[in-house]
Design a protein that fits this description.
Blueprint (H helix, E strand, L loop, with lengths): L8 H41 L4 H8 L2 E5 L4 E5 H26 L6 H26 L16 H9 L7 H25 L6 H19 L5 H18 L4 H9 L11 H25 L8 H6 L2 H27 L14 H7 L4 H11 L3 H29 L6 H5 L1
Antiparallel strand pairs: 1-2
């Protein structure tokens, strides 16, 4: 008897789900571990900055380091080397994640992509509006984008505390919203938080990116060829006035999402770099940037600052209301559908966790403000808003797992 090799539609659907959810499962595992390491690094930075060893902390991260020759080189302090250099790895991984989601993931289907897209837009517009209304053009007005960000590692780490009580669909919805959020946040950084542009260096960066495309079309598979070109693109972007981390996103987006000569290039890069980004680069960023002095009336000053309250309101209320309202509007008008295993009642919990802005919010703070005093007040607002958003999301989901859904929700 000849064994049938034809695969039924059910098996094909299962294979497709495995192709989509396999990388997502790896992503969640890496982000959960990364969230724990990130929390540890943040606590260390805060303790370090509030002990007599604070002078060592400040001295370390303000130490100048020059790379290059006497005629041409880049000189930055150690904190900026982390923010402008190492964080390129983080933004490169963001580019890889975005490319995967757009080509083979949840965002590849237009109707499925509409829901997280609407949620992300709502979760960025309303926080920005609340921030502007509260600050009202006063000191700190340039930080309007700070409460727009979502920290994937912390948000997924909080969700992991609930274990298998949370469905895979809810996790996937949170991830998809965060990915679209990343796309919008990177666009904002490129458009509004870049310095005076140098056309010559900008053209050089563009030529470097075109060269990467050219190597791909010529079938070049040498990793070092792309690494050297990537370094050249980073240098040109850094000198162009556009923030250097944008180079990482651009290179990630140019990475082929489908196999090349049978090799899953994007998946291999993501598999190797994601743990490095989550467990090393981002915690180092937190260690360098989260050291805020909380003594000497700093908390009282932040409590009286419109800037801090604007960030808290944007992260907690703006994200909760903005994401929830945008998603429910999309569902009402039939522009989007909920992922499998997700109920309408789950949306507010996802929206609240979107208010954990930490990493990218801190990143934008460094770009928005030159004054250390404004930076410190903004960071206190970020800590408070992210903590409240995380606790609120955790409370919503914990309550929902104890309450049986109504028939209408079961049918949704």
């Amino acid at each position: 008897m000849t064994e049938r090799t034809e695969r039924g539609p059910g098996e094909k659907v299962k294979d497709h789900a495995q192709n989509v959810l396999g990388p997502v499962a790896d992503f969640f595992r890496a982000e959960t571990v990364g969230g724990a390491v990130l929390l540890g690094a943040t606590v260390v930075a805060l303790i370090w900055a509030n002990t007599p060893a604070r002078e060592i902390y400040d001295s370390l991260w303000t130490t100048d380091l020059r790379l290059g020759t006497a005629s041409f080189g880049i000189e930055e302090d150690l904190r900026h080397w982390v923010n402008d250099g190492l964080m390129v790895v983080f933004f490169f991984v963001v580019g890889l994640e975005v490319k995967r989601e757009l080509v083979t993931g949840e965002l590849a289907d237009r109707r499925a992509a509409a829901l997280p897209a609407l949620g992300a837009v709502g979760g960025m517009v309303l926080p920005g509006v609340l921030f502007a209304a509260i600050v009202a053009g006063g000191p700190g007005a340039s930080g309007w984008a700070i409460p727009m960000a979502t920290d994937i590692a912390f948000a997924i780490g909080v969700l992991a505390l609930l274990g298998d009580r949370i469905s895979a669909g809810v996790r996937l919805l949170l991830l998809s919203i965060a990915v679209v959020d990343d796309i919008l946040a990177v666009s904002i950084i490129a458009l509004f938080y870049s310095g005076g542009l140098s056309p010559a260096w900008l053209a050089g960066a563009a030529v470097g990116l075109l060269a990467v495309v050219g190597l791909r079309r010529l079938g070049v598979t040498s990793v070092w060829a792309y690494v050297l070109l990537g370094l050249a693109v980073w240098v040109a972007t850094h000198e162009s006035g556009v923030h250097a981390t944008i180079a990482g996103v651009a290179l990630g987006l140019l990475t082929p999402a489908r196999p090349v000569a049978g090799r899953p290039v994007l998946e291999r890069l993501e598999h190797r770099l994601h743990p490095l980004s989550s467990a090393v680069v981002v915690p180092l960023f937190a260690l360098a940037n989260a050291g805020v002095p909380l003594g000497g009336g700093a908390l009282a000053e932040a409590a009286q600052s419109r800037l801090a309250w604007a960030i808290v309101a944007g992260l907690v209320l703006g994200k909760l209301i903005g994401i929830t309202a945008a998603i429910r509007l999309g569902l009402r008008i039939g522009a989007a559908t909920l992922p499998a295993d997700v109920r309408r009642r789950n949306v507010p919990g996802v929206a609240a966790l979107g208010g954990i802005g930490f990493t990218v919010s801190l990143f934008i703070t460094g770009l928005a403000f030159d004054e250390p005093a404004l930076q410190d007040v903004a960071k206190v607002g970020i800590f408070a808003g992210s903590l409240l958003g995380g606790l609120l999301g955790l409370a919503i989901f914990a309550w929902q797992t104890r309450v049986r859904p109504s028939r209408g929700e079961q049918a949704a």
